[in-house]
Amino acid sequence: MRRHTGATMHTARTNWKRYALGAAAVAALLSSTACESGGTNDGKNATASGAPSVTGTPGPSQSPGGGGSATPGGGGQTTVAACNDNDLSITTSAWRQDSGQHFLITATNFTDKPCTLYHYPYVRFGVDMEDPIGPMESKPKAIATIGPKEKAYAGVFVFRAGQQTKTVTSFALGYQDRALNSNRDVGSFDIRLADEIGSLTVGPTPKVTYWNTDLGAVEDFLFRSGNN
Prior knowledge:
Blueprint: E1 3-4, E2 28-35, E3 41-48, E4 88-93, E5 102-109, E6 115-124, E7 134-135, E8 144-146, E9 151-157, E10 166-168, E11 170-176, E12 189-192, E13 200-202, E14 207-208, H1 215-224
Parallel strand pairs: 1-4, 7-14
Antiparallel strand pairs: 2-3, 4-5, 5-9, 6-8, 6-11, 9-14, 10-13, 11-12
């Protein structure tokens, strides 16, 4: 099931805690006496070793601003499956007074299980673009793992003043697995832009940020980093 609509953005934040479970060591001394035919007794003792203490696995790391994100393959943690189109509701929105140079992709997990949005989304504009647009150097401090009803964000820079442009009303969206640049040849899903955007003016060198559970971090990079 796929849901692709325009909607108001909310940042979902999850606070994680660490739990530790301790087990005390217990020793028991057992003795038994066996009577032998010669009238002598040999004492034999058995000792039970104590159970080791068990420490809870640390909770998932956090991205800037508190959005929960699990690091795959770390410390015995269960790797969360990669998100796909059947897990997500995708919406698009724009910023006022931005002159249409950027737009935001918001992915909401509408299932009852967490999933991970690895690396950056594959974004394509128009049927003549075979390869997805390149990423900005905006890798977050934590991988974007989202639980039920939680959100992750990716910002897209579409044109710079003075560039030759084309107009589009939709874009294709694809997702990566854990390996960087995986699934490049997998078919993408067509996403129609929200009514508030209508159409986009796309230049020759659009770029997309990495997925991030912190909307503020995406906005800081798009508008204050100078990396467009």
